[in-house]
């Protein structure tokens, strides 16, 4: 039995060895970084394979399959391809904008220094398989355009080939002219001059002094071109010379009027319809002077007093023509053309519309007070109802209903008995549509003051200073004036209807002798 067992075990060993020696290696087990995939899925035992790096990387690996495992016998780790320095550009700089070093995939960007500009179309370089792409950009010096001047201006400096930082200085040929613009300009980094070439123009110099001048418009400007204007505001008692407020610079560099200030003074208002102007406006007529005045016939004073100001006499005008405005004529039409105003003694005619009186044309005249005289209202024969304030109609004949025709009578009273009544209590409608009296009015309170006559003889039931209309006051006579013990007064329309009626009592001698009237201060009858 031992021999067969040994033979069996030996056979199993040989089979095991044969199986291990024939095991394959898988391509997916190769996991080096930055490498390209191998071609085959699997490789036989003993087979070798070269593993190349990805594009942009250098190095390789050489492996051998042995017993199902990969054995590395050559290993050059895959690392990014280096491009070296990208290259300097004169008058420029560069910086990495992608990547950390000059290896595959890195990108650098070039910029020119101030005063230089790039002539190359592309300003970047990238590290590729064969090295840096594109060319090193070129920076050239910035140049500003040629300076051209006319015969009035001289320019000093590099006017033909100005470069960054160059300064051009300008001056006027004629001393009578001033530069309109900057006297110096410089070439900027973008190849443009900092300002235009100035011109030499005619100017006027504004010379003002304080405190006479408090402001000029435009504010602070002292040099003006031909055709430009300046306004001057003088202070206090000063005004602009020759009553000018604005001045123009002329083509010869002179002001049309000399812009100065002097003490303000008003002229005598001649030809302004002032009555005796030289009489009323004599003496000191400086700023602030005041004058009372009158106007000529047909004109009215705008104010009682004229005042001298920087703008002359105020009010303006001093005198205005007295005029009548268009008359207000309800239910009428003016005959002929109408005007917005009418002078004194102007006459116009108007006619009442059909159904209104009077039927004949009416002529009215504008009087010296500016009022129309002779106006007759156009009415339809009825009297107009008017506003009732603190008053009411007590009685109406023939009725209180509208319309109020000729012969209609209204009787009024105050709504409050304590109010005073002013006017006629009864009014009548006339045939021409007018009331024979104006509507009456009520206002103010009707009161009686406390009676003062013989007040020392009485005692009042209600001691007040004022009493309402129709209020009753009761009084008692004091001794010895108590022949009539008590009395009554009534307040009627602001007056008492009587006075205190107290008389001294009369006693006979007999009563006095028997002492029955002791302490009564009565006089003894003469009888």
TrEMBL record:
InterPro entries the UniProt entry points to: ComplSys_Reg/VirEntry_Med, Sushi/SCR/CCP_sf, Sushi_SCR_CCP_dom
Residues annotated as domain Sushi: 81-141, 142-202, 264-321, 322-380, 381-444, 446-504
Annotated signal sequence range: 1-22
UniProt keyword Disulfide bond present: yes
Compartment annotation: Virion
CDD domains linked: CCP
Keywords: Disulfide bond, Signal, Sushi
Paired cysteines (S-S): 112-139, 144-187, 448-491
The organism's place on the tree of life at top rank: Eukaryota
PANTHER family xrefs: COMPLEMENT FACTOR H-RELATED
Name assigned to this protein: Complement factor H like 3
Organism: Cyprinus carpio
């Amino acid at each position: 039995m031992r021999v067969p067992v040994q033979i069996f075990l030996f056979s199993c060993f040989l089979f095991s060895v044969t199986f291990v020696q024939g095991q394959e290696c898988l391509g997916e087990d190769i996991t080096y970084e930055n490498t390209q995939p191998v071609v085959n899925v699997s490789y036989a035992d003993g087979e070798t394979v070269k593993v190349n790096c990805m594009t942009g990387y250098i190095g390789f690996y050489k492996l051998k399959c042995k017993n199902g495992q990969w054995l590395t016998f050559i290993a050059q780790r895959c690392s990014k391809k280096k491009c070296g320095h990208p290259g300097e550009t004169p008058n420029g700089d560069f910086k990495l904008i992608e990547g950390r070093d000059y290896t595959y995939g890195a990108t650098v960007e070039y910029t020119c220094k101030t005063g230089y500009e790039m002539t190359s179309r592309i300003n970047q370089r990238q590290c590729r398989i064969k090295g840096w792409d594109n060319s090193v950009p070129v920076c050239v010096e910035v140049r500003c355009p040629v300076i051209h001047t006319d015969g009035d201006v001289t320019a000093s400096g590099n006017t033909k080939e100005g470069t960054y930082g160059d300064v051009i200085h300008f001056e006027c040929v004629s001393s009578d002219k001033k530069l309109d613009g900057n006297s110096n300009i410089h070439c900027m980094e973008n190849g443009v001059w900092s300002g235009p070439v100035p011109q030499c123009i005619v100017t006027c110099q504004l010379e003002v002094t304080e405190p006479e001048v408090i402001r000029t418009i435009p504010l602070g400007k002292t040099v003006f071109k031909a055709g430009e204007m300046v306004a001057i505001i003088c202070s206090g008692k000063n005004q602009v010379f020759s009553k000018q407020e604005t001045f123009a610079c002329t083509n010869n560099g002179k002001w049309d009027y000399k812009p100065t200030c002097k003490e303000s003074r008003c002229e005598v208002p001649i030809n302004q319809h002032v009555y005796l102007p030289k009489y009323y406006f004599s003496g000191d007529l400086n700023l602030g002077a005041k004058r009372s005045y009158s106007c000529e016939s047909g004109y009215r004073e705008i104010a009682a007093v004229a005042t001298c100001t920087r703008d002359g006499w105020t009010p303006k005008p001093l005198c205005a023509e007295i005029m009548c405005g268009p008359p207000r004529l309800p239910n009428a039409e003016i005959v002929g053309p109408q005007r917005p105003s009418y002078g004194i003694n102007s006459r116009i005619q108007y006619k009442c519309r059909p159904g209104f009186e009077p039927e004949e044309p009416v002529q009215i005249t504008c009087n010296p007070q500016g009022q129309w005289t002779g106006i007759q209202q156009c009415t339809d024969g009825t009297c107009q109802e008017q506003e009732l304030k603190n008053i009411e109609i007590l009685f109406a004949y023939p009725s209180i209903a509208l319309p109020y025709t000729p012969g209609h009578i209204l009787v009024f009273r105050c709504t409050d008995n304590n109010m005073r009544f002013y006017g006629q209590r009864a009014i009548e409608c006339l045939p021409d549509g007018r009331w024979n009296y104006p509507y009456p009015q009520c206002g103010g309170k009707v009161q009686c003051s406390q009676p003062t006559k013989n007040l020392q003889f009485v005692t009042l039931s209600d001691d007040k200073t004022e009493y309402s209309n129709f209020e009753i006051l009761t009084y008692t006579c004091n001794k010895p004036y108590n022949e009539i013990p008590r009395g009554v007064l009534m307040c009627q329309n602001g007056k008492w209807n009587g006075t205190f009626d107290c008389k001294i009592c009369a006693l006979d001698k007999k009563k006095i002798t028997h002492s029955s009237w002791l302490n009564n201060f009565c006089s003894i009858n003469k009888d």
